[in-house]
Design brief:
Oligomer: single chain
Number of helices: 4
Helix content: 40-55%
Number of strands: 7
Structural class: alpha+beta
Largest sheet: 3 strands, antiparallel
Radius of gyration: 26 Å
Length: 159
């Protein structure tokens, strides 16, 4: 069995077989050339980065799914869509000239709140969402800056 590779547009293409295809270079599987090892290690690092980014995105979604307690002690859903729905309801109530509206909290309990209270909640929720988003971006930047698989694996979402 022969082991062979070629580099095509910076990507490592590997193969095995009894005949080496045109344009490929044979190598000793127990002692591959440095350019092969460098590209192989870069591919492993990129795969580790992709996996870690997915893990961090899942952590971000998990944090948002746990809700957030606003300054008026009402716990609310905090996914972007949830905040947008609350904002849409607030805008509708405001444009209709209402001074209060009914909201449903994280635990599915209804509250009658003033529009001022709801506006404060929207600000609280917005700041919380932006803080979590900034944290996500920071982790993604750290992942991109990592130069080894060990550095990538050491990155953990912390509350």
């Amino acid at each position: 069995m022969k082991y062979f590779y070629k580099i095509d547009n910076g990507k490592l293409i590997r193969g095995t077989g009894f005949k080496i295809p045109e344009g490929f270079i044979e190598y000793d599987k127990d002692n591959p050339p440095q350019e092969f090892l460098d590209l192989h290690n870069q591919e492993l690092l990129e795969k580790a980065r992709q996996n870690k980014k997915q893990e961090i995105e899942n952590n971000f979604k998990e944090v948002l799914s746990q809700g957030y307690v606003c300054s008026n002690n009402v716990k609310m859903d905090t996914k972007y869509e949830d905040i947008q729905k609350l904002k849409a309801g607030y805008d509708l109530a405001k444009n209709a000239g209402q001074t209060e509206m009914i909201i449903r909290d994280y635990n599915n309990i209804n509250h009658i709140l003033s529009l001022n209270d709801v506006n404060t909640m929207l600000i609280d929720l917005g700041f919380n969402y932006q803080a979590q988003l900034a944290k996500l971006w920071n982790y993604k930047d750290k992942i991109e800056q990592a130069t080894t698989i060990e550095e990538v694996e050491a990155i953990k979402w912390e509350d």
